[in-house]
Amino acid sequence: MISVENLSKDYLLKKKAPGLSGALKGLVKRKYEEIHAVKDLSFHIDEGEIVGFIGPNGAGKSTTIKMMAGILTPTSGNVFINGEDITKHRKEVVRNIGVVFGQRSQLNWDLRLGESFELLKHIYQIKQKDYEATLDVMDEILGIRELLDKPVRQMSLGQRVKGDLVAAMLHSPKVLFLDEPTIGLDVSSKFALRTFIKEINKIKKTTVILTTHDLGDIEELCERLIIINHGVMMEDGNLSQIVDRIAPYKTLVVEYYDDIAPEHVRCEMIEHEGNIAKYKFMKQETTAAEIIADLSKEKNIKDVSIEEAGIDDIIKIAYGA
Amino acid sequence: MKKGFKELCHYMDVTGQCIKMAFMTIIEYPSSIAGWLISNPLQFIMGFAIIKFVVESFGEINGWNYGQLAFLYGISVISHALSMIFFVQGWFMGYYVIYGDFDKYLTRPLGVLYQFFFTNINIFGITDLIPGIIVFIYGCVKCQLAITPLFLVQVIIMLVGATLIRGGIYILIGSTSFHTRSAVDFGQYTQEIMDKTTMYPISMYPESMQFILTYLIPVGWVSFYPVSSLLGVDNSVLNGLAVPFVTLLVGFIVMALAGAYFTSGLKKYESAGN
Amino acid sequence: MKKYFYIIKTQIIKTMTYEFNVYGNIIMQTIIMITSAYFWKALYRNQDNVGGVDADSMLTYIIISSLLSVLLITNVEKRIEQSVIKGTVATDMMRPINVFGGYFAEDIGSIIALFFQNMLPIFIIGSIFIKVPKMADITALPLFIISVVESFLINWLIAALFGMIAFTAINIDALIQVKKHLLRLLSGSIIPVWFFPEKVANVLEVLPFVYIYQLPLSIYIGKGDRADQIRGMEIQFVWLVILAAIFLYAQKRATRKVMVQGG
After folding, report:
1. Looking at the partner chain, which of B40, B58, B197 has a beta carbon nearest the beta carbon of C35?
2. Structural domain tally of chain B?
3. Are the C-beta atoms of residues A158 and A188 closer than 8 Å to each other?
4. Predicted ipTM of the assembly
5. Boundaries of every domain in chain C
6. Which residues of C touch A30 (CB under 8 A)?
7. Could you tell me the pLDDT band of residue C263, with boundaries at 50, 70 and 90?
8. In terms of CA atoms, which chain C residue is nearest residue A29?
9. Residue C16 and residue A19: Cβ atoms within 8 Å?
10. Looking at CA atoms only, how far is residue A302 from chain B in angstroms?
11. pTM for this model (two decimals)
């Protein structure tokens, strides 16, 4: 469905010196710095996948997704959607994609929502029958019909995002790109948006590619994660695989009746405060049950719990790297 | 051939929808149309009055009498108005570049430049058209022109050409923003320079400047050359029925160059954010 | 006072940030100035003296008018409109400085930057390619400077008053255009109003516009005698007082209105 081959993007960044003298110098001589935003990325995405791009700000994930959607021209490398190069055949290829980019809307601010859809209907040459059918599906998921006659400028952010989602799906694209779609949304709008993504993926087999900082998005939506930092791919796989790879351990928390906590040979005591001790152990080396059994031979145990490395730990580790 | 025709129909269909939406937008804001209805005609009526005062103080301008100047002015204002309707967005291209507003055009299956201009079509430009047409008709009467079908065709052809030349120049100036990454609005200056070079005969300027205005920045073709051939003034320069068609040709050339420069700029487009 | 100096300094830096704007503006203004110069040269080809002014003085007029046009750029009307549209008026007015004082400081900052960025280059280019714009009578220099300061203030007050209309009728884009056209065509910035028919010129001499461009320019090229110039400056001063009074009144009303309605 989508192939990305050796994708790279460089920018020239203006360097600015501070203060009045800096501004004066800038008038005469301007220094530029070359930024390698994305370095030699290659990956493949199959039809019907939901892929999340995560990484800290400035990691290059937005640049990547914008190159995949044909907005930015790569410095080198290619993006193929349905086997066609998007930079070479932009007009044909974009018929297969829909795009929702964060807080930038493609809706006409001054007019009712329906007018923006009407324009897209003409641009994508959508037949009235197909248009109505798509709207019916969208109405079921998002309740869009009640918004059709509302001027966009009077809408809440949540309603506008709904409008933009439907606008991006009107021509039934095979791929939907979303750049930080849940940013600034309230809980119920976030819920609606996630439901929407899951539903169109199920009903229409739409491939979904999104960037996000939201842990909820990742946990609920993404079957596959691509972690990018400094323009380089750090990890690629589903959540549990990545967890196994970069955080292959669990933490056992044991509460004793007094302040003395025994050590254990096959794990490391990482914290000991009062009557509570934390043991970190590798998943493939041993199990929690084994450790508890051993420890309980030495001392009486009041309570135990197990902490697993979650998505936020993964992100911390990945970003820190 | 058939494919080309289909594509043309597609573009016409979208254009129709854009125009419809532009009118709807005007209806949403009735007070602003009132403002423009006063502002734009005022500018050109006053500008025209000033030409009259200048002619009264100095006599003819380089052999052009008042009626001929009115005709020239009319053509200049009408082509200005048409360029305002279709191409005014070019003045603001820098803002689109900086704020990443080309994103949406790039992800739709139509030409980017087409969408940029036509989804922002400026129906308010009609308010410039009215004073232009009035002065033009006044000039026709003063020059006692015989309105023949050929004359009408020539006028229409040269207006199309002139509008394309102006639009092309706006695109060329606007597209520099892709390289400089700064939002500059040279619209006011562009218009002031255009006013000075299309509302008066360029034969009054020194030859070096005429050369520039003929070959490098072909503003002379917007009004001066076609109008002087139509009215038969400045005979030495150019004459013949075909001159308005040359304007059209120049218009196509400028547009093609502008389009190419824009496309090369678009490759450097960086969107907004990270 | 310190706060205002800070605003001025910030604005100077802001204005200088975009080097392309700077060079672009210089190029555009140079083209306009040179075209105007040739325009007048062509008009004067067969005449020595029209309306009491010769070709040489007219060229000086054009160069100094180009320089003045840099000085007379205001942003206050746009600033007011933006703060109304974005709904930040109320918070702006709560700030410990006078809003309009702040806008004034910003415009001063821009002008200081533009003085070096645009006026000096244009002066040099004009001197080389057109002529050195020498003042007709150097003893009139104090008069010229005072009249320029007053014309700057009049221009700023008119802009601020137009901007304040935004408090009532939000979108003032068209009105700003009307103001710009009136100023461009009726102030003598492009064509001195002494070329207009006498009746029109008489009417214009009552309006404030000619005191923005034409009066200082006339003093510079030495048109009319000293008594005429002094009389012109008296009217200019009266306009300054009238506009300042209207401004203070309007400012008071606008502030009260915003405070009551909360923007």
Report:
1. B197
2. 1
3. yes
4. 0.87
5. 2-261
6. 19
7. very low
8. C19
9. no
10. 51
11. 0.88
| CB-nearest partner of A123 from B29, B108, B269 | B108
User: Quick one: fold of A2-6+44-237?
Assistant: Rossmann fold (3.40.50)
Question: What tens digit of pLDDT does each residue of B210-244 get?
Answer: 999 999 999 999 999 999 988 888 665 566 778 88
CA dihedral of C255, C257, C260, C263, whole degrees rounded to 10: -80
Min distance B57 CA to chain C CA atoms (Å): 6
Range of the domain at B177: 2-266
CA C171 to chain B, closest CA, distance in angstroms equals: 7
pLDDT at B36 over 50: yes
pLDDT tens, residue by residue, A275-312: 888 888 888 888 888 888 888 888 888 888 888 777 77
* Residue B155 vs residue C225, higher pLDDT: B155
**Domain ranges (residues) in chain A:** 2-6+44-237, 248-320
CB C162 within 8 Å of CB C176: yes
Phi, psi of A273 (to 5 degrees): -135, 125
Q: Which two tokens stand for residue B16?
A: 């129709």
Chains that touch C (3 or more CB pairs under 8 A): A, B
CB atoms C17 and A16 under 8 Å: yes
Residue B104 domain-assigned (yes or no): yes
For residue A9, what are the contacts with CB-CB under 8 A and spacing of at least 6? A36, A37, A38, A60, A63, A64, A67, A72, A74, A75, A231
C61 to A110, C40, C65, C249: CA distances (angstroms): 46, 10, 6, 36
Length of chain C: 263
Q: d(Cα A288, Cα A301) in Å, to the nearest integer?
A: 14
Q: Is B264 on the interface with C (CB under 8 A)?
A: no
- The token pair at C230 is 């002094």
Interchain contact B209–C (C-beta under 8 A)? yes
Residue range A248-320 forms a domain whose CATH class is: alpha beta
Closest chain C C-alpha to A304 CA, distance in angstroms:
55
In this predicted model, what pLDDT tens digit does every residue of C23-46 receive, in sequence order? 888 888 899 999 999 988 888 887
Q: Which two tokens stand for residue B177?
A: 């923003």
Which positions in chain B touch A101 (Cβ < 8 Å)?
103
Q: Whole-angstrom Cα distance, residue B135 to residue B150? A: 21
Residues of B in contact with A111 (CB under 8 A): 21, 24-25, 28
The verdict on a CB contact (< 8 Å) between C16 and A24 is yes
Give the model's pLDDT for residue C70.
Answer: 87
- Does any CB of chain C come closer than 8 Å to the CB of residue A21? no
